[in-house]
Amino acid sequence: MATRIREKAQARAESRDNRPHAVARMIRMSPYKVRSVLDVIRGKSYIEAVALLNAMNKAACEPVLKVVNSAAANAENNLNMNKDTLYVAECFADQGPTLKRMRARAKGRGARILKRTSHITVILDAAK
């Protein structure tokens, strides 16, 4: 049953992505709203992305800014990278679990309210 465990572990370690990243899970905001902010910062340098997020008037900017800063801190502390050379290589928002609530409607009926959550991932990389 446990055949080639060392080889498989070594292959996983070699194919592992060593770029600095950060993930925020269960953010109580629709991924549709978060993606509009992520589209703006994708491909930008770290400093430019932080400036854009501070200037933008969207509710999704606050959690995205926290994730970008966390990824930069991971790069600086864990991988000894300089924040000035980083850029946003990848960023995406996946849908998390949906909270289902009920709202009273006419004639004793109920309507379902879907409160969506998102998982925000930001991957940084050093500029070449």
How would you describe what is shown here?
- Helix content is 39%, strand content 30%.
- It is α+β, with helices and mostly antiparallel strands and 128 residues long.
- The strands form 2 sheets. Strands 1-5-2 form a 3-stranded antiparallel beta sheet. Strands 3-4 form a two-stranded antiparallel sheet.
- The relative contact order is 0.24.
**What integer value in Å does the Rg equal?**
19 Å
- Beta-strand portion reads 25-35%
Note the run of SSEs as H and E: HEHHHEEEE
Flag low-confidence runs: none
Our measurement of the CA-to-CA distance between the termini, rounded to an integer number of angstroms, reads 44 Å
Let me know the average pLDDT: 94
Largest sheet: 3 strands, antiparallel
Topology, number of strands: 5
Overall structural class, as computed from helix and strand content, comes to alpha+beta
Number of helices: 4
| Helix content class | 25-40%
Lateral arrangement of strands in the main beta sheet: 1-5-2
Shape: flat
Topology:
Blueprint: H1 5-15, E1 21-27, H2 31-41, H3 46-55, H4 61-78, E2 86-95, E3 99-104, E4 110-115, E5 118-126
Antiparallel strand pairs: 1-5, 2-5, 3-4
Helix pairs in contact: 3-4
What keyword list fits this structure?
ribonucleoprotein; alpha+beta; 5 strands; Ribosomal_uL22; 128 residues; single chain
Short structural description:
The protein is α+β, with helices and mostly antiparallel strands. 39% of the residues lie in helices and 30% in strands. The chain has four helices and five strands.
